[in-house]
Amino acid sequence: MGVNFDAYARTGVDLVNARLDDLDDLRALFPETSAWMREEVAERDLAIFRRAQKRLRDVFDYGTSGRDTDAVAELNALLEAFPVQPRISGHDSSDWHMHVTSRGASVSSEYLAGAVWGLSVWLCEYGSARFGVCADQRCGNVYLDTSSNCCRRFCSERCATRSHVAAHRARKRAAIGEQTTVAAQPVPADSLTPVS
């Protein structure tokens, strides 16, 4: 079984888009398959996750604005802060799988090493232009652009639809405003003279 780098990269996306107001928000970030993380997460992890969340958002901002060198520098710094130390884990030959950190690593070390590793592999494979920030001004979520021609602008269909509807309504209001302005303009006096 190979390592699913996309899944690791998506944990980075999930982290950047997550609310992290308290430990319950942090616990909600972990998948059902990571019950141990939910049980062992501590207050100190929350502060680490918040700092990493901001730094990963910077990576997406750099990628979106074409600042590849900055995105790479930040990911390299995060790889140093949360190093990958792969190990094989499992109970028997039918359950062997890879973990990204050594046994006994903290919840933050385990999660963040995987997220940073996944995003780093993603950048090397597809380039930082595939790191997106939603174009809907009310959203701001990040995403990984998996479109065939790197043209995605929104994190979801919901945001795309909402943004397109808002733009359509704005154009409609502008058109009505122009019609109202034209209708409200006074007619010049010389155009009112009768034609003989």
From TrEMBL:
| Record-annotated Zinc finger CGNR domain positions | 130-172
**What Gene3D superfamilies does its record include?**
Jann2411-like domain (1.10.3300.10)
Which Pfam family name is an example for this entry? zf-CGNR
**So which domain of life are we looking at?**
Bacteria
Question: InterPro entries, per this entry?
Answer: ABATE, ABATE_dom_sf, Znf_CGNR
Protein name stated in the entry:
Conserved protein containing a Zn-ribbon-like motif, possibly RNA-binding
Which organism is this protein's natural source?
A: Micromonospora avicenniae
